[in-house]
Design a protein that fits this description.
elongated, mainly alpha, disordered N terminus, 2 domains, disordered C terminus
C-alpha cells in the first residue's frame, strides 16, 4: 500500500503516524553497479524524480520524500565527485621487464670462474701431497669391496668413463652457447664445481685410502723434491687429470670420485636447462652419465664408497642451490633451514638480483650486424612482392 493513498483516505492522520507509514514501503536500494562504472553516473539510475499527482503538483506529505531524495542526491553527488578525484585508486601492477629481473652481470660470472679455477688448482696441489702418503700395495693391499667381489675388472671400462664424460661436457657446452641467460647458468656451474672440488680436497686430505686394485701403477714418490712436485702439478693441470692424456699417474685421490662429480653434474645441468619436450635428449645424457659411473666401478678405479659419496654430495648440493635459487620466498624466510649452509652469503651475492627462475630460452650466440638484418629484410620484402 502506497503512503500517498493512505494520506488521501485519512486526512486526520497524525503527523507522527504519517512518518511511520512513509517508512513502511521504502524505495529500492541504489544499484551501485550503475554508479561506479568508469567513475560516472549511469542514466539508468532509479532516481527519476519525486512522485507527483495527476496535475503535476506535489501531493500532501511529499515534502518528506523530497527531503529524502535531496539527501540521496547530495550523497550520490559526493560519491560521484570522490570517484572523479580518485579515479586512479585501482592500481594495476605492471611486471618489470624480464631483462631487469634476470640481469646478466658477467662480472659476477667472472668471480665464480676464479673461484672454480682456484679450487681446481688447489685440488691438484692436494693430490700431489696425498700421493706421497699412499701406502705401498705390498704393505697395504686393496680394501675389501662388495662390488669387486661380484664383478671382475674390465681394462677398457675406465676409458668409456672418460669418453662419456667428455661427450657430456661437450653437449652441455654447446647447449650453454645457445642459452639466452648463459651468464647466470655459467655462474651457477662455476660455483658448484668450485664447491664440490673444495669438499673433495677436504675428504682426500683427511683420509688416505690404499689403491683399490693391484693393477694400478702409481708414479714414484718425490718426498722432499719441491721442484718435482711443481712439475707434477703442471703435468696434472695440462692433461686435465685424465688417463687418456697420460696425466693421471698419481694415487690417493679416491674419496670421493672426481669423475663421478663431473658425470653427474654435467647431466644435472643438461636436464635442468633443456626443454621438457626433448625427453629423448635427456634420456640419452642420463644413459651416458649412468654408464660412465658404472664403468668406474667395473674398471676398479675407485671404491664403491667413492662413487656413492660423490653422487650424493653432487646431487644434494645441486638440488639445494637450485631450490633456493628458484624459490624466491625461501631467501628471506625466517624458518628456512637451507640458509644455514656456509655458502649462503656467497649465494646471496651471486643470486641477489635474479628475481625469478631462469627460463629455458635459446638465442643465437652471435648477434648479426644491423646491416645484415636490414639486407635480409629487404630481400624478404622483394620476394613477397614477386
Amino acid at each position: 500500500m502506497a503512503a500517498s493513498e493512505l494520506i488521501q483516505d485519512t486526512d486526520d492522520t497524525p503527523n507522527n503516524l504519517e512518518v511511520t507509514l512513509i517508512t513502511v514501503d521504502p524505495p529500492p536500494p541504489l544499484p551501485m553497479t550503475h554508479l561506479v562504472a568508469n567513475g560516472n553516473l549511469s542514466s539508468s539510475s532509479p532516481l527519476s524524480g519525486v512522485p507527483r499527482g495527476p496535475s503535476g503538483a506535489r501531493r500532501p506529505g511529499d515534502h518528506k520524500s523530497a527531503s529524502l531524495e535531496d539527501s540521496r542526491s547530495r550523497l550520490i553527488g559526493c560519491l560521484h565527485s570522490g570517484l572523479k578525484r580518485h579515479r586512479d585508486y585501482v592500481k594495476i601492477a605492471v611486471p618489470q621487464e624480464r631483462a631487469n629481473r634476470l640481469p646478466r652481470e658477467w662480472w659476477k660470472t667472472g668471480v665464480a670462474f676464479l673461484y672454480a679455477l682456484f679450487n681446481l688448482l688447489f685440488t691438484t696441489v692436494i693430490i700431489t701431497f696425498v700421493h706421497e702418503r699412499v701406502p705401498d700395495k705390498s704393505v697395504s693391499p686393496p680394501l675389501p669391496d662388495k662390488f669387486f667381489d661380484y664383478m671382475d675388472r674390465v681394462p677398457w671400462a675406465f676409458t668409456v668413463t672418460e669418453v662419456n664424460g667428455l661427450m657430456l661436457v661437450g653437449l652441455f657446452f654447446i647447449q650453454w652457447l645457445f642459452l639466452k641467460h648463459k651468464s647466470i647458468v655459467a655462474r651457477r656451474c662455476f660455483f658448484l664445481i668450485g664447491t664440490l672440488y673444495m669438499y673433495r680436497c677436504v675428504t682426500m686430505y683427511i683420509t688416505t685410502l690404499p689403491v683399490p686394485g693391484k693393477h694400478m701403477v702409481c708414479a714414484p714418490k718425490l718426498y722432499n723434491d719441491s721442484t718435482g712436485k711443481i712439475w707434477r702439478v703442471l703435468q696434472l693441470i695440462s692433461g686435465g687429470g685424465l688417463s687418456l692424456t697420460g696425466s693421471d699417474l698419481m694415487c690417493g685421490d679416491f674419496l670421493y670420485s672426481g669423475h663421478t662429480v663431473m658425470l653427474t653434474l654435467a647431466y644435472l645441468f643438461i636436464a635442468e636447462y633443456s626443454p621438457r619436450r626433448l625427453w629423448w635428449y635427456r634420456w640419452l645424457c642420463w644413459l651416458l652419465s649412468a654408464s660412465g659411473v658404472v664403468c668406474i666401478l667395473v674398471g676398479h678405479e675407485h671404491y664403491s664408497v667413492d662413487v656413492v659419496v660423490g653422487y650424493f654430495v653432487t646431487t644434494r648440493v645441486f638440488w639445494t642451490y637450485h631450490t633456493m635459487a628458484n624459490t624466491h620466498a625461501l631467501r628471506r624466510a625466517p624458518n628456512n633451514l637451507l640458509a644455514r649452509t656456509w655458502w649462503n652469503p656467497v649465494f646471496n651475492f651471486l643470486e641477489r638480483n635474479v628475481q625469478e627462475p631462469v627460463p629455458v630460452v635459446f638465442s643465437w650466440p652471435i648477434t648479426l650486424p644491423s646491416s645484415c638484418t636490414q639486407r635480409y629484410r629487404s630481400v624478404d620484402t622483394s620476394a613477397r612482392d614477386e
